[in-house]
Amino acid sequence: MNLIKITLLVVFFASLTVLDAHEVKSDISKKKIAYIVSDIRIPFWKIMSRGIKNSADELGYEVSFYGSNNIKKSEIQNTVKVIKDKVDAIILSPINSSSAVTVLKFAESANIPVVISDIGTDKGKYLSFISSDNEDGAYRIGQVLAKKMKELGWDKNGSVGIISIPQKRANGKARTAGFMKAMNESSIKVNGLKQQVNFSYKETYDFSIELIQEHKNLSAIWLQGSDRYKAALDAIKDAGKVDEVLLVVFDAEPEFLELIPKGVIIGAAMQQPYVFGEEAVLILDDFFNKKDVKKHIQLSILSISTDNIEKNIPIIKRNVLGILE
Amino acid sequence: MKNRQKSIFYTLFLAITFTILIAVLIVSKIFYDQTKEHILKDINSDVKTSLLLLKNSIYPFMDSYSVHEYENLIANELNRKYTLAIVVEDYNMEKILDSKYLVGKINNNDRVEDYNQNDEVHQQKISNSYLYIKDDIYNQFGLKIGNIVIYASDDLVQEKLENIIKLSIIITLLSTILVLLVIFFVIHKIVQKPLSSIIKVINNKTDDGIPTNKIPTYNSKELAILSATLNNMICSIKESRYQLDKIANTDMLTNLGNRYKLIHDINNSTNPALAIINIDNFSELNDFYGYEIGDYIIKQVGQHISGLTRHINTSTYHIQGDEYVLFNHDIDKDEFEKNIHKLVNILADISVEIDEEDLNFNFTIGVSFESKDKILPTADMALKVAKRNNENIMIFSEEISLNREYENNIYWTKQIRGAIHDDSFIPVYQPIINNKTNKIEKYEALIRMRDEDKLISPFFFLEISKKTKYYSRITKIMIEKTFERFKNSDLEFSINLTIEDILNKEIKEYIYNMLIKYNIASRVVFEIVETESIENFEAVLGFINKIKKLGSKIAIDDFGTGYSNFDYLMRLNTDYIKIDGSLIKEIYKNKQAQAVVSTIVDFAKRMNIKTIAEFVENESIQNKVIELEIDYSQGYFFSEPKIDI
User: Fold this and answer.
1) How far apart are CA B631 and CA B473, in angstroms?
2) Mean pLDDT score of chain B
3) B137 three-class SS
4) B interface mutation test: which of A78, A95, A102, A125 has the most B CBs within 10 A?
5) A220, A169, A225: which is closest to A192 by C-alpha?
6) Residue A29 above 60 pLDDT?
7) Is B96 near chain A, with CB under 8 Å?
8) How many whole angstroms separate alpha carbon B315 and alpha carbon B306?
9) Which helix (H) or strand (E) holds B393?
10) The dihedral of CA B338, B343, B345, B346: what is its sign?
11) A1 pLDDT more than 50
């Protein structure tokens, strides 16, 4: 009898717990998240949106995507739209840190929490900001280059040229600082720094040619962005320096899975956009569940070289390239 | 009493302070106004510049929906000193939002805030702004994409103007203090110090208030002039003082010391001795020779006396008319007395030549050795007594002093009142002798006051009675008693009347009534005395005519002295002339007296007026009287005045 009673009570409480869990789940599924992104056509953001989508699906949030095509008007229109749609939260990857301010202002006036995923903001209220540890990533890829140059014996006489993203950006400054630290530690000279303005193929090509021509002992080019890696490779090739000038890159492209093992590109500091997306939704999930959230989360950057690419391919595919198998 | 005089420097400082304050305030006001105008222009210019700059720089950002970028531009422009707020209306954003979209920045207590049109503080600040300028914003295609409003604050203006006011106050105070200090030191050095030294020199003065030292000269032109002027003034004052002292102390006629100097010398004496010397009968000489000669005589006699006494260290003064004073400030009594006695003999030999004839003089001297405050009146008293007693020298003593008591007004007023009450005024009668028959022909009634067994002369009480209400009463008593005495007699008698009696209506009426009552008019001769004091001649003549109608006669008493003259005789229709006793007393030895009397007698005869000689005291006089053919004689040579006749 007692056993029957106890069994019934256990079943009853278990049923209550299951019901309660079902209700919570149901409540969460009602939450709507909007991801406003500068340009969803760009792989980095596409991969990040994939992380958001998968994470939101897993946690039961409804998520909608608003690409601004790098047009501020669209970004504002998207912001106004999501506010009108009464979303519960916004994940923002702004066109730039300045345009982020306007988005944050509208969101604040509508009392909508915002998680900024990369780029950052000049000012304004937000729930959390997720960024890559650019300096550390650049430092570690710098170490990869230094190691290679030592192996080749180029560290004494050779120098490195940098084609950087604009140095007024915080991530640009951080990347340069981290890289310079690694070069200094290895006593490798850095000759010349060219800042990208329009991020065109031609721009990167020309900068690469200039660096090669201006510095006869140039042994390596460090490209702070991945999308124009081809221009740099073409310039090295055209300059007849294929075996004399190395290329290291920040960020990653799917082609790198082949080019790095071949040594065409000797290494890349790979951000993990998929993790950005996952992390943004997890932060919002914590917020919705009234848990404490960190104001600033820095994600590590993968330092991939010929030496370690093989074993990191699954991670690269998922976190960097957003390829889910 | 509180001294209300203000220092010239105090007044000067007040005036300068006031002037500086006004001047600096005016300058400050002008500076304030100009600065205000300048600032306001500056504000206008600044706001317009800001507007233009923003218009030209903001539209690309507005066109590209870079709200934060143009917010930063606005924030930068807000750093301008006068800008309170900048508000941009973005039409592009409005199209997206379907509502008005304002972006702006506002300075709120030195903190740049995002402009919020719903914020009351922001609205309040904007509504209080000094000015605002609004303009439309166009993009590069000329399309209106918004507008911009810039609000300017006058906080800085107020602050600047407040600073100007504070600065003006400080400048005013400092400049006032500075100028006052400079002026104080300058004035102190070039004005106050010299003036103080001038005042010090002026205050260092003699008892007469005249500065003893000269005022020094100064470098400053004005003070040098002042110094020279004051020194000239002091010299002039000293000279004037010397002249005044001389005038005050010197008798201008004789050049001897005057009464003022005498009193001064008496006051400074230690053991004084003083003698008053009077020329006997000088008034007759004056009458006879006139004042010019009289003055000449006074001057000559004065010089003689002064010359005689100089060697005995005695000063000579001429104090009035015919009186001189000898004074020694410190001398033994006996020695002074001896000197005076010697002097009497010498004085007898003094002669002054007039009309080629040497005139000699008799002198009467009153001497006193009393204390400083009493010496002059006591010497005078001694002189009067000497005159009365017909003595040459009289030294003042207590006895004289006692007699003097009788002359005390209060004493005599009391005595007069008592005498009236006790019926003590009585007439005495002195006979008048006809020199042709040598017989008593008439009597003069003279008044006396009976004091127990003495008969007191009117010399003591008559003048005093004139000053009291008793005089007319005494006149009436004399008339009544005399008339009573002579009512049953055939003798003629005379009664003295003063001008005051004649001018008194009550007395006149009384006389008329008594003459009628006693039917005695034809035997009464009224002797009019003091004819020199007739002012209302017509009234006197009226009286004379009236009584003469009644049968009475008129005699002019004491003729030949004072101002009496022949004109009076003619006009007063007189019957008798009584020649003054002072002339008669001298007649037997003094040629001048003889000449005067002879002239009077001669005139009287021609006018058919009878002459009477008074004071015939001895035979020599009577002989001379007869020789000069004076009709009647009266005097002690014949009989003293008696109660009973």
Assistant:
1) 33
2) 86
3) strand
4) A102
5) A220
6) no
7) yes
8) 7
9) strand B393-395
10) positive
11) no
DSSP alpha helix (H) spans, B64-83: 67-77
**B-chain residues near A99 (CB < 8 A):** 65-68
Neighbours of B612 (CB within 10 A): 30
Strands B315-320 and B323-328 turn out to be: antiparallel
Does ipTM surpass 0.85 in this model?
no
Residue ranges and CATH numbers for the domains of chain B are 1-249 (3.30.450.20), 259-401 (3.30.70.270), 407-633 (3.20.20.450)
Whether B96 and A75 lie within 8 Å, measured CB to CB: no
Strands B576-579 and B553-559: parallel
Query: Which residue do the tokens 């071949």 mark?
Result: A262
Q: What is the pLDDT of residue A66?
A: 97
pLDDT in tens, B334-345: 889 888 888 888
Beta bridge partner(s), residue B561: B559
Q: Scanning every residue of chain A, which has its alpha carbon at the shortest distance from the alpha carbon of B99?
A: A80
Residue A102 backbone phi and psi in degrees, to 5: -65, -45
The rounded distance, in Å, linking the Cα atoms of B370 and A7 is 165
Judged against a pLDDT cut of 90, whether residue A125 lies above it is answered with: yes
Q: What is the DSSP string of A240-298?
A: T-TTT-EEEEES--TTHHHHHHHTSS-EEEE--HHHHHHHHHHHHHHHHTT----SEEE
pLDDT of amino acid B330:
87
B545-602 pLDDT, tens per residue?
999 999 999 998 888 765 456 666 777 888 999 998 888 888 888 887 888 888 889 8
Answer positive or negative: Cα dihedral of B492, B495, B501, B506. negative
φ and ψ of B347, to 5 deg: -60, -30
pLDDT band of residue B36 (cuts 50, 70, 90) is confident
For helices B505-518 and B471-486, angle between their N-to-C axes, nearest 10 degrees: 10
Q: Rounded CA gap, B407 and B101, in Å?
A: 131
Domains and CATH numbers, chain A: 30-133+273-299 (3.40.50.2300), 134-270 (3.40.50.2300)
Q: Which of B 57-76 lie inside 8 A of A, CB atoms?
A: 64-69, 71-72
The counts of H helices and E strands in chain A are 11, 12
